[in-house]
Amino acid sequence: FAPWADATSKPFISFKNVTKRFGDFTAVDDLSLNIYHREFFALLGASGCGKSTLLRMLAGFEQPTAGEIVLDGTDMAGTPPYRRPVNMMFQSYALFPHMTVEKNIAFGLRQDGMQKDEIGERVLQMLKMVKLEKFASRKPNQLSGGQRQRVALARSLAKRPKVLLLDEPLGALDKKLREETQFELMDLQQNLGLTFVVVTHDQEEAMTMADRIAVMSHGKVIQVATPAEIYEAPNSRFVADFIGDVNIFDGKVTAAAAGTVEIAADGGMMVKVASSDTPSVGSAAGFAIRPEKLKVTRTPPANPGVNAASGELWDIAYLGDMTVFHIKLKSGKVVKASLLNAQRAVEDPFTYDQEVWISFAEDAGVLLKD
Ligand code: ATP
C-alpha cells in the first residue's frame, strides 16, 4: 500500500498553492501537498512553522489567503467546518468536564440529531474501540491522561469522519504511555481504514507512526517522503540536521562525474560520495553522514586518504543498546559515531584519549547541495 508511489493514484487531500497570512506575517507560504486515502500522514516541524495553521485550514477553522484545498474531489472553499468530512482532535482534548465519558462521546451525534438507540450503539462501539467500556459513567477529572486522550479520540471518531486531524495528540502523555498510544493509533487507523493527518514537532513520533512525513519550515514544505527516505536521503541540510543525529562536513567540489562527487571537506578530508548530481567543480557543497554509518577503528583503514580521518576519542557514552563516541578530528572538528553494543567486538576496548580512525563507504552519506 503506497499510493503516493503510483503516479496514477488520485490524492484524497490536495493543498494547491495555499498561502495563509496573518496581517503581514506569512504563516503558510504557497504550499502544495497531496495526501492519499488511508494514509497516516505527519506534518513535522519546529514550533511556528505553520503546521497547525495548515491543519486548521483543512478543518475549516481558518480560510486560506490564497490557493485551494480539495478534499475527496471537492474544493473546500466556503464549506464550513461542520460540513467537512473531517474531525479534529486537539492536544488539550477539549472534553466537557461536567459530562460523563459517554455523554462526551455522544455529544456530536446528538447535535446531529441521531436517534437515541443508534447513539447508544455507536457510543458503545467507540468505548470498546478505545477499551474504556468500564469508564463510561466517569467524568474527565476521574480519568488518567491516557484515558482522557482515548475519550477524545473516541469522540472525534464517533461521527465517522473520513479524515481525522490530530494536533499534537500525544503531547500530554508521558514517554511510555506515548509510545504505547502511538501503536494504538496506528492499529486504529489501519483497522478503520481512515486517513489520519497528525501535526507533531516530535520526529520520533512522526517516524514511528506515519506512512509519509512532510518536513516543514517557515510555512513551506521542505521534503515529503517516507520516514526511511527522510532519514536516509534528506534532500537538504535543513532536513538532514532536523531529523536524527548527523555529522555535516562543508567543503568544495573538486570533481563530479559518473555518479560520484568529490569534495575537499573542512579539515582537509577528501570525501567521495555517491550522487546522481553533478555539481560544478569549485562550488560549495556539504556532506552529511549519520553517526551509525561511521566506522570507528584503532588502526587506519586500507585507504586512509579518502573517506577517512583520524582523531582522538573525546567522549564515550554507554547507552545500553549502543555506545556513542565523540571523536575530535585532527582538524579540531568533533564528530559523533555510534556503535551497536551487540555488534562490538569484545577485543575492541575503546578508551578516552586514544587515537582512532573514522572511515565510511561512498554511499554511506549524502551530498548536500545547499
Ligand atoms: P506550534 O507547534 O507552536 O503550534 P505551528 O508550527 O503549529 O507551531 P502555527 O500554529 O501554524 O505553528 O503558527 C504559525 C505562525 O503563525 C506562528 O508564528 C504564529 O504565531 C502565527 N499565527 C498563527 N495563528 C495566528 C493568528 N490567528 N494571528 C496571528 N498570527 C498567527
Automatic annotation (TrEMBL):
<dbReference type="InterPro" id="IPR003439">
    <property type="entry name" value="ABC_transporter-like_ATP-bd"/>
</dbReference>
<keyword id="KW-0067">ATP-binding</keyword>
<protein>
    <recommendedName>
        <fullName>Spermidine/putrescine import ATP-binding protein PotA</fullName>
        <ecNumber>7.6.2.11</ecNumber>
    </recommendedName>
</protein>
<keyword id="KW-0997">Cell inner membrane</keyword>
<keyword id="KW-0813">Transport</keyword>
<dbReference type="GO" id="GO:0043190">
    <property type="term" value="C:ATP-binding cassette (ABC) transporter complex"/>
</dbReference>
<dbReference type="GO" id="GO:0016887">
    <property type="term" value="F:ATP hydrolysis activity"/>
</dbReference>
<dbReference type="InterPro" id="IPR005893">
    <property type="entry name" value="PotA-like"/>
</dbReference>
<keyword id="KW-1003">Cell membrane</keyword>
<dbReference type="GO" id="GO:0015594">
    <property type="term" value="F:ABC-type putrescine transporter activity"/>
</dbReference>
<feature type="domain" description="ABC transporter">
    <location>
        <begin position="13"/>
        <end position="243"/>
    </location>
</feature>
<dbReference type="InterPro" id="IPR017879">
    <property type="entry name" value="PotA_ATP-bd"/>
</dbReference>
<dbReference type="Pfam" id="PF00005">
    <property type="entry name" value="ABC_tran"/>
</dbReference>
<dbReference type="Pfam" id="PF08402">
    <property type="entry name" value="TOBE_2"/>
</dbReference>
<keyword id="KW-1278">Translocase</keyword>
<dbReference type="InterPro" id="IPR050093">
    <property type="entry name" value="ABC_SmlMolc_Importer"/>
</dbReference>
<comment type="similarity">
    <text>Belongs to the ABC transporter superfamily. Spermidine/putrescine importer (TC 3.A.1.11.1) family.</text>
</comment>
<keyword id="KW-0472">Membrane</keyword>
<dbReference type="InterPro" id="IPR008995">
    <property type="entry name" value="Mo/tungstate-bd_C_term_dom"/>
</dbReference>
<dbReference type="InterPro" id="IPR027417">
    <property type="entry name" value="P-loop_NTPase"/>
</dbReference>
<dbReference type="InterPro" id="IPR003593">
    <property type="entry name" value="AAA+_ATPase"/>
</dbReference>
<comment type="subunit">
    <text>The complex is composed of two ATP-binding proteins (PotA), two transmembrane proteins (PotB and PotC) and a solute-binding protein (PotD).</text>
</comment>
<dbReference type="InterPro" id="IPR017871">
    <property type="entry name" value="ABC_transporter-like_CS"/>
</dbReference>
<comment type="function">
    <text>Part of the ABC transporter complex PotABCD involved in spermidine/putrescine import. Responsible for energy coupling to the transport system.</text>
</comment>
<dbReference type="InterPro" id="IPR013611">
    <property type="entry name" value="Transp-assoc_OB_typ2"/>
</dbReference>
<dbReference type="GO" id="GO:0005524">
    <property type="term" value="F:ATP binding"/>
</dbReference>
<keyword id="KW-0547">Nucleotide-binding</keyword>
